[in-house]
Amino acid sequence: MLATITMPDHYGFIDHDVYAFDNALKVFDWNIRSSEVVIDMTECETANYQAVSLFVLYLWHLRANDNHITIRFSANGKGASQMWRWMGATGWSQVLNDDQQNFRGTPTKPLIALRNKPDFENAITKLDVYTKDFNVEYEKTLRYVLSELMYNALEHGKRFRKILNHEKQIPSIIGFTWYKLRNELHFIVADSGIGIKTHLEQSFGPFDTDEEAIRMALRPQVSGTFSTKDPYVSKDNAGVGLFLSSNIIKRLNADMHIVSGNGLVHVSPIDITGRKLKYEWPGTFVLIKVRLAHQLDLNLHSLMAELRATAKTELSEAEQAESLNRLLLVVENYFGKHAEDKGAAISYRDRYILPAVEAGRSFQIDFKNVKNAPHSFLSALLATPIKRLGMRAFKKIKILNAPTEIRETIDYIMDENIADQNSENE
Ligand SMILES: Nc1ncnc2c1ncn2[C@@H]1O[C@H](COP(=O)(O)OP(=O)(O)OP(=O)(O)O)[C@@H](O)[C@H]1O
Ligand SMILES: [Mg+2]
User: Fold this and answer.
1) 370-410 residue pLDDT tens
2) Residues with CB under 6 A from ligand 1
3) What is the residue with the minimal CA distance to atom 30 of ligand 1?
4) Residue by residue, what is the 3-state secondary structure of 46-62?
5) pLDDT tens-digit profile of 79-104?
6) Per CATH, the architecture of 2-229+236-303 is what?
């Protein structure tokens, strides 16, 4: 069997200024086994380093599936073919075979295989090279974020496969690029592990979608390692890595995209949005874009203290609410300041609010810091629960800290759905 995988021209995550992850993911065929596979890079004149680095994980996957691989480079040696060389990705097979080897690219285009502590330190050293000319707070802050993502890849994204009868660890990868003109630092941490949804399900039971699981993973004290099934699984994780790093990203005026399975969640300085992708990544990758400013008005130490305090209040409020048999939703933490994602509201409603209604629990929805929540969002979240509760909705649903406009919209939804029901009953 012969299969050809073509890297198209303009290969990357962005299409006409918008993120289009499906463009990058649709080229991969994950089901090829025991075949001759040609990876054709000849057509690709322009590409993005982070997207091209995903091909390294793909090649490892093909190798684990017992394929024989040939890569075709362009005749002029330019474009993706050149990027591949600069990243040292030509060493993909040696790096897979030998834990001591890593990619030997040019210093400005680091690509690192992540399997163990030395690889971890190697990546941190390479990141420091980029940030050393900037504010020292940047150095510390970015190092912190990268460390959390690398720990996650090492702890939760590990993958082992038999290759030529030897059990092998498939490494995760990290790649950085500094776009000098725009003064942006982009980096990716990617793995081919079980994915966030499957990992979290060890503690939380089934999720409907990958997106929902990713959103859950961003909350404080949510960890797939809290499993009670296996008493020997280590429980060293506090479940705060993604909570802290995503909040730091917001403050840095940066963007974080998390892709796992077919779920995509985007953390931006103003909101958290997500959606379902058409194609999937079997594992997890996190892409970060930071606009570097020479002046950074941020102190990592005090920011961390502040975030830990936020996490603590959220958790103690949640615990308190729990003990009062109440469900608490802190809208900002789950949906961001601009709570507009109707699909996410529907999954939250189905997963948490409706079961709470069934169980006779009451709930509190806290709109603190939320700038806007349009009618369609609030209606997706609340109309059905209100309908089911009828008049009891006034007692069971408590709205906290809502700005007037949101308050009025909710009152309107209340009236509308309770009135509906009354007339149905007549
Ligand atoms: N790369 C990944 N692959 C699979 N699951 C992941 C990955 N990254 C995160 N997760 C899931 O999301 C959960 C939350 O991650 P987070 O970093 O917030 O907490 P943690 O790693 O469990 O604990 P801590 O980071 O505090 O040590 C993880 O426990 C895991 O279930
Ligand atoms: Mg973690």
Assistant:
1) 999 999 999 999 999 999 888 888 888 889 899 999 999 99
2) 148, 152-153, 155-157, 191, 193-196, 199-200, 217, 222-225, 237-243, 284
3) 224
4) CECHHHHHHHHHHHHHH
5) 999 999 999 999 999 999 999 999 99
6) 2-Layer Sandwich (3.30)
